[in-house]
Each structure stands twice: as C-alpha cells, then as structure tokens.
Amino acid sequence: DIQMTQSPSSLSASAGDRVTITCRASQTIRTYLNWYQQKPGKAPKLLIYGASSLQSGVPSRFSGSGSGTDFTLTINSLQPEDSAIYYCLHTYSNPWTFGQGTKVETK
Amino acid sequence: EVQLVQSGAEVKKPGESLRISCKGSGYSFNTYWINWVRLLPGKGLEWMGRIDPSASVTNYNPSLQGLFTISVDTSITTAYLQWHNLKASDTGIYYCARRLTSSGAIYLDSWGQGTLVTVSS
Question: Which of B106, B113, B116 to mutate to test the interface with A (most CBs of A within 10 A)?
C-alpha cells in the first residue's frame, strides 16, 4: 500500500496568513493527488484534484502543487471560514489512502 | 444538480446486520463509480471500496475485505453498504462519493451527507 504522510498534524494561524500543508507519498503517485476540506458534521469537500487543478466554485486562495511523491496545499490569505481539517488522498492505485489530516485553526 | 442522498442514522447491537443506502440523482448513475469512505471516532478518513454500477464490479480495500459488501440497484439509482456481523469497531460515519476521471486525475467530487452508524450493546 502507498502511505501518505501529511504534515503538520495541526496549525494555528491568523487571518490573512499564508498556510502550507504538505503530503508525501511512500512511492510515486504522479499527479493522482487530491485535497479535501472537512468541517465538523459535514462531508469532505473537494478543493484540488490532479495535484493542482482547482475544483469549480472553490476560492482561488486555495492552490495545490507537486508531482511524484511531494505535494503541497497552500491557502493564501487564510479566512476564518477556512478552519477545518484538511486531507490529501491519493488515487494512483488500490487501495486509495488518505493522509492523517491537518487541523487548521484561525486565531 | 448532482446529489447523493444517504439513509439515516442507525443504532445496532454487535452481531446484527445492517444495510445503508446512497441514492444518486442529477447525473447518469451508471456512468460513475460509487465509492464508500468512513470516518471512525478519533481517526481520519479511510477508503473502503467502490462499485461500477454498470457492471456491479467491486474493488475493496484489502485491509477491510470480507468485513462488508458493496452492491447497487441501478433501477433505483442506489448503492448499498452492508454488514452481516457488526462490531463495536464499526461505529462511525460512512460516506458515499462519486468518482470522476479526467486527464491525469481521478477524484471524488460529490459526496453524500454521511450516515452515522452506532454499534453498541
């Protein structure tokens, strides 16, 4: 199985800050990497697919980059409504696996 | 509008059976694989498996295989997740999600609202 190591596990930042979350795969997954946002009591919401494509309707302050084994989710100008848990998900091969999640808090 | 609507919360005892559902609408149901993902208490998200509605072909997470069954009834555009011998460790929230593919990408774009399953004696 491909393991996804996500970091940090949590962070706290001020509104307007730039936030970066990383995901590292245990082997190459090319660009088969997606990012999701999950708020309490809600289903995960797709933010980024194919490592860097912004899902329709998602604010442009969210961006993704990377290929191979190293990936990054960046939130430019963090907003209070961005407080949530963020997960990466690889879809390169079975079984798909999620990162452990990053809890983002807005101060 | 694409919608996946899941059945309501369930409370069961260990050893009991359960089937939860996920009804798709607003798109060609047979065209897109339905996946199941779970969120266990204090844990992160875990991919369980998927089904191709057009052929009822399934793929399961090998670490979970045999613990549940995924099925579909295309006549009512509904996918199912079924257990025959529930355990307390099955307690959690279960989500269905639609799989999309595009050049260089495979992803889950639309999700059901989740079904809370509680297994307790």
Answer: B106
